[in-house]
Amino acid sequence: MRKMFVSMTAIALIGVLAACNQNDESDEDKKETVTPVETVKATTGDLVVEKSLYGRTAPVSTMPVTLQNPGEITELEVENGEMVEEDDLIAIIKTARGNQNIYASKDGEIANLNAEEGAMVSNSEPLAVIADFDTMKLNFTLAAGTLDLFEKEDTFTALIDDKEYDAEITSIGSMPDDTGLFPVEATIENKDDAVLAGMVAVMKVPEKRVKDTVIVPTAAIVDESGETFIYVIEDEKAIKKEVSIKESQSNETAIEGEVNDGAQVVTNGQLTLTDESKVNVVKEGE
């Protein structure tokens, strides 16, 4: 009898514990997970799709310093990087026909000087070059289908060594070069002498414009199982909105869908969300 009582007591206790566990699990189910997210406002406007073109910098003009006859440099009055004015004496060359004075033919900067006093020099190659570095030329080569993006005197933004410059189109080639590409030239002002010959220039050229569209950060777009969507914050919940992409750039994307101007679009934390997830906006951008 006593054993039966103990067994019944144990069974009752197990039942009570099981009921408690079920209640605890039920309570936990009732607690919603709150996901921290970052948002940015959707905007309405025109999205300009830009094309990046890569080229090299060069002096806008160069003038070779040539010799009439070969000989020995007896006096050298300049060095690389030195500024000269027209008719400045550059060097005196001792030749078989007597001394030859070499003068600057224009204002500019001495470059490509590879000789020194006492050296023998030839008249088959320039002694040096006088270059204009105040205005620099940007050289690009483009496919025929890209030429319609340009007109002479158009101005675009060029990025050189992380600095922006206004680049004016000065020449558009009408014939391709040996590679089948067309040469295009632009010029920039090099007032601070920061641009050197041979540097890489990246010019941003508008290629397409999507007018009067909803624009969201590209980071907000989620592609999953063939579905494209974003999350919009409404009443502290993330609401899933299916969208279609009209045009996309690295930072911004033009979309079509039920997204209003000024909507708070999730840009960080969206990969862990589901429709109507409860969220906490920890950072709200414009």
Keywords:
286 residues; mainly beta; 6-stranded antiparallel barrel; 10% helix; elongated
Helix content: 10-25%
Strand content: over 45%
* Number of contiguous helices: 1
Can you give the mean pLDDT? 88
Classify the secondary structure makeup into a structural class.
mainly beta
Which runs of at least 5 residues are low in confidence (pLDDT < 50)? 25-30
Q: Strands of the largest sheet, in order across it?
A: 2-9-12-11-10-13
Shape: elongated
State the assembly state of the protein chains: single chain
Over the alpha carbons, how many angstroms does the gyration radius reach?
36 Å
Characterization of the model:
The chain has 286 residues and is mainly beta. The protein has one helix at residues 2-30; strands at 34-41, 43-65, 71-76, 83-84, 89-95, 98-103, 108-111, 120-121, 128-142, 155-160, 163-172, 182-189, 200-217, 222-224, 227-234, 237-248, 252-257, 264-268, 277-285. The strands form 2 sheets. Strands 2-9-12-11-10-13 form a 6-stranded antiparallel β-barrel. Strands 6-5-3-8 form a 4-stranded antiparallel beta sheet, with no helix packed on it. Strand 10 (155-160) and strand 11 (163-172) form a beta hairpin. The longest helix is centred in the first third of the chain and has 29 residues, at 2-30. The model is unreliable at 25-30 (pLDDT under 50). Pfam families: Biotin_lipoyl (PF00364), YknX_C (PF25989).
